[in-house]
Amino acid sequence: MAKVSNRNAIQLAIFVAFGFLFGYDIGVISGCLIMPDFIRRFGELGPDGEYFLSSSRQSIITSLLSAGTFVGALAQAFTSDRFGRRGSILIWSGIFTAGVAVQTGTEYSIVQMTIGRFIAGLGVGALSAIVPLYNGETAPKALRGTLLVLYQLQIIVGIFLSYIIDLATHKIPSSASWRVPVGLQLVWGTIMLSGILFLPESPRHLLGTGRREEACTARRPTRPGVAVFRQWTFSGFS
C-alpha cells in the first residue's frame, strides 16, 4: 500500500504544483517585449519613423504583474481560510485565466495589456502561496519535503519553457508571435481550474475549522483513486 500511496501523492503534487504556470507567466513577457508586432502595437513612433518601446512602457508592462502578485499573495490569506484550500485554488485560477484572456485579446491598448497583467498577477501571487500550503497539508510526511521541492522545480521549468516558445514564435510576422506564447497560459489555467474540481479539500483545513466529522469521513471510498489519496492524506498527520 505504501508504494501505491506514494504514487498517488506524487500524481497529486504534479497536478497541483502545475508550477510552470507561475514560472511561465514570469518569463514569457521578456520575449514579447522585443517582438516587432508587439512593439508596433504597444510602442511609440519615434522621430525616424520606427516604433519603439520606451523604458517607461517596458517597466509598466513588466511591473504590473509583480504588483498583482503582491496583492494576490496577501489576499489569499483571507480566501484560503474562508473558502478552504480547494475553493481558494479554484477562485484564483479563474482570476488568473481571466487576466490572461484580457492580455491575449488586446489589440493596441497598453492600458488593457497592463490591466490584464495585473489581474493575472493576482492569481499568480495567490496560487504561489496556496499551492505549497495545499501540498504541505495533504502530502504524506515522508514525501512532504520532496513534493514541495518539486513545486520550485516546476517554476524553473516554466521559465525555461517560456523562453523556448518565445524563441519559436518571435519570427512570425503577425500578432501570433506574442499571442501564442501569452495565450498558452489559458491552457495551464484551465487545467488547474478544472482539475481542482476532482481533488478533495485539505483534511487539515477541515479539522482546523471544526469540521472533524467531515474530515474523518473523507477516508471513506467515494471515487476510484480518491480513496487512496484520502488514506495517505491522513497518514501525514501521524
From TrEMBL:
It catalyses: myo-inositol(out) + H(+)(out) = myo-inositol(in) + H(+)(in). Its main location: membrane. The chain crosses the membrane at residues 12-39, 59-77, 89-106, 118-135, 147-165, 177-199. InterPro entries: MFS_dom, MFS_sugar_transport-like, MFS_Sugar_Transporters, MFS_trans_sf, Sugar/inositol_transpt, Sugar_transporter_CS. It is a multi-pass membrane protein. Keywords: Membrane, Transmembrane, Transmembrane helix, Transport. GO terms for cellular component: membrane. Pfam families: Sugar_tr (PF00083). It comes from the Eukaryota. It is found in: Membrane. GO terms for molecular function: carbohydrate:proton symporter activity. Residues 11-238 form the Major facilitator superfamily (MFS) profile domain. Belongs to the major facilitator superfamily. Sugar transporter (TC 2.A.1.1) family. This is General substrate transporter.
